[in-house]
Specification:
The chain is α/β, with parallel strands linked by helices. The chain contains 13 helices and 14 strands. Strands 6, 7, 8, 9, 10, 11, 12, 13 and 14 form a nine-stranded mixed sheet that branches. Strands 1-4-5 form a three-stranded antiparallel sheet. A hairpin with a 2-residue loop joins strand 2 and strand 3. The structure holds magnesium ion.
């Protein structure tokens, strides 16, 4: 079996006002890169890379750089193909190149598992974990009306942990956490995601308040490269710190994990070098006794499924990020919802049971969200 065709498709979807507001601001559109591999055996494998902005640039990287490394190759050579793709760009791993690589790598794993006739999580040796505990993500920052509606929605779905977004200034973040905590009134555990909004003094104040309120974790108080602040905060505040969605390579993830600063690791296989490199990261976390919960964020159906399979395949996984805002590329791209809140049963999601990722992209939906070249 060889790869006969590789198709990289840039997709984007608008986001309704107020639906997805973080400390960075408001997302009004979300892009992604879809990769489809067609094999000589008639198998189609799918992969997705994060491509929040300028997704056409990602498709160019695949077409011009990665396609010659993949076409004509046996997909079971994935380790060597991955090494060639990762070596195509000099400098530290990261950026558009790695997010595009992630899509190609995930599609290779999808092809392999499909050819074996196994769902990916079983192909990875994760049998016995068909259901994954989920948490609700994420309650929007600053709009009390939207936030309280989202919390009631999470509670009605049986979610036992709910994450809220917050950000600078610290006083406002603390007041917000208290208001949401009081509204929830013990009906669920809460966690908070700052998307890198704070400096160390403010993070100490916010983290202390969250610890007092019994929050389960404090996510990304700092930018991913500010490891010194993560270490300092962990030494000063009794709350579990979470990070990892910004990691591109197992080498930098190892620095974060070995620092001892975080207690919850959140890589996203649509950024972190696909299934190949994300598995390496998760293995490091597991070896160091650090819990794992995949990042999903604004991802589409393919990355939501891939992250769910990785979650099921790892005994370090404690939770899956189940998104509560509508993202049509997640709910319709595969012809039906994938890892959606509407599919929760008692706060858990069932891993797709078909071969590979267990989903298939609907070409008509793909074409509807295609980002076309300018005329
Ligand atoms: Mg986050």
């Amino acid at each position: 079996m060889v790869i006969e065709e590789i198709r990289a498709t840039p997709l984007a979807v608008p986001v309704a006002p107020g639906q997805h507001r973080t400390s960075w601001g408001e997302y009004r559109s979300i892009g992604l890169l879809l990769v489809e591999l067609h094999t000589s055996d008639g198998i189609i494998g799918y992969g997705e890379g994060l491509a929040r902005h300028a997704p056409r640039a990602y498709a160019e990287v695949v077409d011009q750089v990665f396609a010659p490394m993949v076409l004509g190759r046996d997909p079971f050579e994935v380790a060597r193909i991955w090494r060639a793709m990762a070596g195509a760009f000099s400098g530290r791993a990261g950026g558009i190149a790695y997010e595009a690589l992630s899509a190609v790598d995930t599609a290779l794993w999808d092809v392999m598992a499909r050819s074996a006739g196994l769902p990916l999580f079983r192909f990875l040796g994760g049998g016995g974990a068909e259901w994954v505990e989920a948490y609700g993500s994420a309650v929007s920052w600053r709009s009390e009306e939207t936030a309280f509606r989202q919390i009631e929605q999470c509670l009605a779905l049986g979610l036992r942990t709910i994450k809220l977004k917050l950000g600078s200034p610290a006083d406002e973040a603390i007041a917000w956490a208290r208001r949401v905590h009081d509204h929830v009134g013990g009906r669920a555990r809460l966690s908070a995601d700052a998307n890198g909004a704070f400096d160390l003094p403010d993070a100490v104040r916010v983290g202390s308040a969250l610890a007092d309120l019994g929050f389960a974790w404090f996510e990304e108080p700092f930018r991913p490269d500010d490891l010194a602040s993560y270490r300092a905060l962990a030494a000063r505040v009794p709350i579990r710190l979470a990070a990892g969605e910004g990691e591109f390579s197992a080498a930098t993830a190892h620095e974060l994990l070995a620092s001892g600063a975080i207690g919850l690791f959140q890589p996203d296989c649509a950024r972190a070098g696909g299934i190949t490199e994300t598995r390496r990261m998760i293995a490091i976390a597991e070896a160091l006794g650090i819990a794992y919960a995949p990042h999903v964020g604004g991802g589409g159906a393919v990355s939501a499924a891939a992250n769910l399979h990785l979650a099921a395949a790892s005994t370090a996984c404690v939770n899956y990020e189940c998104m509560i805002f509508d993202q049509p590329l997640r709910s319709t791209l595969a012809g039906g919802p994938v890892a959606e809140a509407t599919q929760l049963v008692d706060g858990r999601l069932r891993v797709p049971q078909g071969p590979g990722l267990g989903i298939a992209v609907d070409p008509a939906v793909r074409d509807r969200f295609l980002v076309r070249d300018p005329d």
